[in-house]
């Protein structure tokens, strides 16, 4: 397992999990959004309540809250599968059966429902371009997180001796959760206080003060991985998302995630591991790999 400064790749046994968001089963008939009560600011809601927001879409409460705004307080609310006509939304190119086939030994923390709930944070992910491009991007993302987590088995960094090293005190906000609080967590092993701050700001979640959300909430964990995938170039020259949708190829996603350690012949075995996973996953999705697999 390789390591990097940004979103360090480190592994560990899962410390705990939270009940995932309940969404309608694939193929089920979702209720019309108009059938749910309108959201009211300041009204108390409990986990499982479903409301219709001012945008006409429905949201389900992941946690009890005193009427937080569903599109701002994304830890408390998640989009619920419906639209104005009752048609399920948020269709993902990877089915739950395919996801389970890709990760037969995954930890239950990495739930399919957690992943699909997180997709709303970056609607362009695996939803841009042709059907082939969409499937290739989904396969590329899942292949990289598979490599990072041992097949979606590991959630947090195991070597606790490393924990204090991920605090950059030069940042003006410091490390309010504690010097040893910003160790690697989630599908792309988010680490360092500045990455928790940046990811949290982007997602509307206070991860700087509560980094433990990434190891306790499946949807939050997946969102941090999608944040990196869609917005960070890492040691590369483009985001992994742009690499896939603009035809640069899978190899450039490796460069953006861990290229400074693996690419240009530095660690060909690690690169091959990622490519092998990508090849398996594109086969499961019934699509081609495209060109430029290596970096």
UniProtKB/TrEMBL annotation:
Residue ranges annotated for the Chitin-binding type-3 domain, each copy included: 36-80
Matches recorded under Pfam families: Glyco_hydro_19 (PF00182)
GO molecular function, one term: hydrolase activity
Keywords, ordered alphabetically: Disulfide bond, Hydrolase, Plant defense, Signal
PROSITE patterns named among the record's database cross-references: PROKAR_LIPOPROTEIN (PS51257)
Gene3D superfamilies tied to this protein: 1.10.530.10, Carbohydrate-binding module superfamily 5/12 (2.10.10.20), Endochitinase, domain 2 (3.30.20.10)
SMART domains, per database record: ChtBD3
Coiled coil start-end: none
Signal peptide: 1-25
Protein name: Glycoside hydrolase family 19 protein
Organism: Streptomyces prunicolor
